[in-house]
């Protein structure tokens, strides 16, 4: 390879020095050899893939067939969907902009550690070391990623078509033709953006730096969509969205199909197609810029992530992704050390949080989502209200769990706790203080809008949920090694082996207990006034859960110490 490729730079030429691209090119011979050698492996892989697809189709038909039949029957008889169709019309500009930017953000962040061109380790270690054209080897992976992204986008596109048909906004054929440009072009644009990030090392750092602003923009778009549904639309803002980029160009034919005014939709489709073609051409040309060292690092990261997922160790996979993406942004912050030895743990946790503000930002985003779901639970009532309540508690757990990273770091490697004279079980209790306190504060802030909207009980109920959720996060940190033996119990039931269900129950025991108990205690409280009995019930449930989960965390810490000896 070239010296530039060995040092990880992305300069051209891409072909190795010392061989002539015309006389010594062995790309065709090497690819024929690999096809012959891999023929048996590909046959077995295709069989395995066919079995997997068959199982997925069987599950989809068995578990989703009844719901699909009921939905289609309601469509055929013309069920009354109320004002849902009008709400969809009003929210389309903001929704398309939000979904497009979210897809672009996810693709850009994925390109920080993987990207659309990621090749297996043997290809990097052996094939690219041969006298072959790098572009001929790497470009098929780009187009494979592009094709898979389009296939993945067809499912939500089909759901949107069915929704437009069910609400009688458009016929099936008209809706399908209107959604098709978005379903094809927007995923390809996301792949092109990911290719730009992958081929330019400096862009990865910019993506990490601009992510908080992008998340804030997504939140504003969600608020705009909600305001549009409630009848407070902004015509100027919607016109800007419809003509400012691919997100609006893709929405215009859908708006026209639903009866909204979109006079310039042919020009919008033409601009979308031309932009997509130009972006994919640029991505195609950028493939040879990928260096050998960069491809080797990404292949190793993907192998670690895949191994972590196959062994049911998602934290291992997450740490590998974080390290490959450049780690967490750290800031130099100093705090005066405390005098008491017990408050040292709280001081270290606070200092770590101030030095990694991204964790606090993630917690704030999850808390805002939990607040929105909780407000919906209070408005919906019935079965929908229960589902939204459980969703709100799950999002609240995600917010508090983002603040409990020091506890997970302590249990990842017990040698990290050697600095403290305290026992590990005591350390775990102290690691619960900061997530519980900040979680309570975030919940209180998230409850203010609902209190101003006439639901003052949110100021009491939402903060009470933070301490038990924080204790559940610490219990998860003390879980210990993954018990993969639970996956295969050998017990035959009409639904199959219960091993996977048992494993999920073991792995998520603490959050399931806390979320289920809090949902039972809060059921009916968000929608109505809170009397002393209801407040006492929720307070007692939160206190009992917190105490029981802390006891469970202490026992888990003792087991970890005993296993490490």
UniProtKB/TrEMBL annotation:
Ranges that cross the membrane: 49-70, 90-108, 141-163, 175-197, 209-229, 263-287, 386-409, 430-452, 458-478, 499-522, 534-554
Instruction: For this UniProt record, give its keywords in alphabetical order, as a comma-separated list.
Output: Membrane, Transmembrane, Transmembrane helix
Q: This protein's superkingdom?
A: Bacteria
Q: Where is this region: Disordered?
A: 1-23
> Where do the coiled-coil regions begin and end?
none
| Claim: Membrane is one of the keywords in the record | yes
Protein name, entry field: Uncharacterized protein
Native organism is Streptomyces palmae
């Amino acid at each position: 390879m070239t010296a530039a490729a060995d040092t990880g730079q992305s300069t051209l030429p891409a072909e190795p020095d010392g061989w002539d691209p015309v006389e010594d090119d062995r790309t065709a011979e090497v690819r024929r050899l690999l096809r012959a050698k891999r023929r048996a492996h590909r046959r077995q892989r295709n069989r395995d893939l066919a079995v997997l697809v068959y199982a997925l189709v069987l599950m989809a038909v068995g578990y989703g067939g009844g719901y699909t039949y009921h939905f289609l029957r309601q469509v055929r008889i013309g069920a009354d969907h109320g004002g849902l169709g009008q709400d969809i019309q009003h929210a389309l500009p903001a929704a398309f902009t939000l979904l497009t930017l979210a897809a672009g953000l996810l693709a850009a962040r994925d390109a920080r550690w993987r990207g659309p061109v990621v090749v297996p380790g043997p290809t990097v270690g052996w094939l690219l070391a041969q006298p072959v054209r790098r572009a001929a080897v790497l470009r098929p992976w780009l187009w494979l990623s592009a094709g898979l992204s389009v296939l993945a986008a067809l499912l939500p596109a089909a759901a949107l078509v069915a929704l437009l048909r069910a609400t009688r906004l458009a016929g099936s054929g008209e809706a399908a033709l209107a959604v098709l440009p978005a379903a094809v072009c927007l995923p390809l644009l996301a792949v092109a953006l990911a290719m730009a990030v992958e081929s330019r090392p400096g862009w990865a750092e910019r993506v990490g730096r601009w992510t908080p602003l992008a998340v804030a923009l997504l939140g504003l778009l969600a608020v705009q969509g909600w305001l549009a549904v409630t009848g407070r639309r902004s015509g100027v803002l919607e016109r800007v969205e419809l003509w400012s980029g691919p997100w609006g160009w893709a929405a215009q034919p859908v708006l026209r199909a639903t009866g909204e005014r979109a006079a310039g939709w042919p020009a919008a489709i033409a601009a979308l197609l031309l932009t997509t073609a130009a972006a994919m051409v640029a991505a195609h040309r950028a493939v040879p810029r990928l260096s050998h060292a960069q491809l080797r690092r990404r292949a190793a990261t993907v192998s670690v992530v895949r191994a972590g997922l196959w062994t049911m160790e998602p934290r291992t996979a997450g740490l590998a992704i974080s390290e490959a993406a450049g780690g967490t942004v750290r800031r130099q912050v100093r705090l005066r050390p405390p005098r008491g030895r017990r408050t040292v743990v709280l001081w270290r946790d606070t200092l770590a949080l101030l030095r990694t503000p991204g964790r606090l930002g993630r917690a704030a985003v999850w808390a805002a989502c939990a607040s929105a779901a909780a407000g919906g639970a209070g408005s919906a009532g019935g079965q929908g209200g229960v589902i939204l309540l459980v969703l709100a508690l799950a999002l609240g757990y995600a917010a508090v769990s983002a603040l409990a990273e020091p506890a997970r770091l302590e249990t990842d490697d017990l040698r990290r706790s050697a600095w403290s004279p305290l026992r590990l079980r005591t350390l775990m209790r102290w690691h619960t203080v900061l997530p519980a306190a900040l979680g309570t504060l975030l919940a209180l802030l998230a409850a203010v809008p609902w209190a101003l909207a006439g639901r003052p009980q949110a100021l009491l109920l939402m903060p009470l949920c933070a301490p038990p959720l924080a204790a559940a996060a610490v219990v998860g940190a003390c879980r210990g090694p993954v018990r993969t033996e639970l996956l295969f119990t050998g017990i035959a039931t009409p639904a199959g082996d219960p091993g996977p269900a048992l494993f999920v129950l073991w792995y998520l025991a603490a959050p399931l207990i806390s979320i289920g108990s809090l949902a039972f205690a809060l059921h009916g409280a968000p929608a109505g006034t809170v009397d002393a009995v209801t407040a006492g019930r929720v307070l007692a449930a939160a206190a009992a859960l917190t105490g029981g989960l802390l006891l469970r965390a202490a026992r888990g810490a003792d087991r970890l110490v005993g296993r490490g000896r």
